Amino acid sequence: MKFKFFILILFSTFILNESALAQCANKIDVTSEIDATTELGKITIEVTSDEEYSCTLLIETAEGETVVEEQRNSGNKTIEFSNLETGLLYSVWVRFPDSQNIICSSLRKTVFLKR
């Protein structure tokens, strides 16, 4: 009985989380590619928003995070970070400071640029 209750709580938490994120007006789509000749990477972020935001590219290591670059924009935009070293774990962090929904105020995706 306790196990069924636990599964029910876990399932409802997942559904509520998914439905809350589905209501976000702010969205990001992150893609990456590596140039075959230069072996340098590029990360492209498609931002869908009516608000102002900052987009930060970070490198994640065992020692912590290092900021590579930050851009500030507003509205729907395509942001590109290029000439990136491959073999590293990058994180894209987009913050919407004026967002009324706390869940939607910060979106983050991680990308590994394989060699």
Structure notes:
The chain is an alpha+beta fold. The protein is built from one helix and seven strands, in the order H-E-E-E-E-E-E-E. Residues 14-21 have low confidence and may be disordered.
As laid out across the biggest beta sheet, the strand order is: 4-3-6-7
Chain oligomer state: single chain
Strand content: over 45%
Q: What separation lies between the terminal Cα atoms? A: 49 Å
Number of helices: 1
Reading the helices and strands in chain order gives: HEEEEEEE
Number of strands: 7
Q: What's the story with the biggest beta sheet?
A: 4 strands, antiparallel
Overall residue-averaged pLDDT value: 86
Poorly predicted runs of 5 or more residues = 14-21
Portion of residues within helices: 10-25%
- State the secondary-structure class: alpha+beta
What's the Cα radius of gyration?
Answer: 17 Å
Q: Choose one word for the global shape.
A: globular
Summarize the structure.
The chain is α+β, with helices and mostly antiparallel strands. It is built from one helix and seven strands, in the order αβββββββ.
Main attributes of the structure:
7 strands; 1 helix; alpha+beta; three-stranded antiparallel beta sheet; four-stranded antiparallel beta sheet; 115 residues
